Amino acid sequence: MGAQPEQELFLYDPSLLLKLDFYRSPAKFNPPITAVAPGEPWLKVRPLKTGDYRRGFLQSLSQLTNVGEISEAQFLNRFAEMRAKGDYYVTVIEDLRSNKIIGSATLVIERKFIHSCGIRAHLEDVVVDDTYRGKQLGKLIVVTVTLLAEVLGCYKMSLECKDKLIPFYRSIGYVDEKGNSNSMTLRYANQNRL
Ligand SMILES: CC(C)(COP(=O)(O)OP(=O)(O)OC[C@H]1O[C@@H](n2cnc3c(N)ncnc32)[C@H](O)[C@@H]1OP(=O)(O)O)[C@@H](O)C(=O)NCCC(=O)NCCS
């Protein structure tokens, strides 16, 4: 008997995406689309999988920022760390015709003592491949992880973005709260880890 192909792992339980009620989002989709029915039979919204290294996930992220040279082993190691922590919800859109990842967004959960040991959400690393932009997919992936954070019990979700994307996020329900919307950064030159 030949070797069995290795089973791919999901980063998180894909059935969570079946629980999202898109009517709860203020975002307007025209035509209407959801994570389960993204408008084309060849589009799939799902959690990141181990095999996505070979489906161009990192190439897609490189349209957002510098990704660096990452081997498959490094990718799988980081994937395993995220999966073990259980607080990372990297969500992707795949084009099933080419088996390529064409967009993604990450929801990260932060555990708190405040708010009765509450949990809050951060939106990170939103990108849609440039040849697929302007087709509501950016809105779709952001609304997907935003609704997911609510299903998981978060009391709020926040993000940092370029000024020009403020209207995009406003249309999805994010608010630049008066006196409370600054973002500050300190970048480390030396990135040696413990
Ligand atoms: C931002 C990004 C994810 C949007 O993806 P997209 O699939 O083109 O977005 P959508 O088609 O869902 O657009 C949704 C709405 O936002 C608007 N919008 C999209 N990109 C925008 C941009 N760069 N600037 C201003 N408005 C934008 C669209 O006009 C659209 O408005 P409408 O609903 O009134 O028609 C995509 O442009 C991208 O990957 N950019 C590079 C990476 C990046 O900047 N990521 C965000 C980091 S915070």
Automatic annotation (TrEMBL):
Query: Keyword Acyltransferase on this protein?
Result: yes
Alphabetically ordered keywords of this record: Acyltransferase, Transferase
User: Which of the seven top EC classes does this enzyme belong to?
Assistant: transferase
Q: Which PANTHER family match?
A: GLUCOSAMINE 6-PHOSPHATE N-ACETYLTRANSFERASE (PTHR13355)
In the UniProt record, the signal sequence range is none
Keyword ATP-binding among UniProt keywords: no
**Which GO terms of the molecular function aspect are on file?**
glucosamine 6-phosphate N-acetyltransferase activity
Concerning its family, UniProt says:
Belongs to the acetyltransferase family. GNA1 subfamily.
All copies of the N-acetyltransferase domain together span: 43-194
- Reactions catalysed: D-glucosamine 6-phosphate + acetyl-CoA = N-acetyl-D-glucosamine 6-phosphate + CoA + H(+)
Identify the InterPro entries for this entry.
Answer: Acyl_CoA_acyltransferase, GNAT_dom, GNPNAT1-like
Q: What is its EC number?
A: 2.3.1.4
Name the chain's protein: Glucosamine 6-phosphate N-acetyltransferase
GO terms (BP aspect) = UDP-N-acetylglucosamine biosynthetic process
Pathway-wise, it operates in: Nucleotide-sugar biosynthesis; UDP-N-acetyl-alpha-D-glucosamine biosynthesis; N-acetyl-alpha-D-glucosamine 1-phosphate from alpha-D-glucosamine 6-phosphate (route I): step 1/2
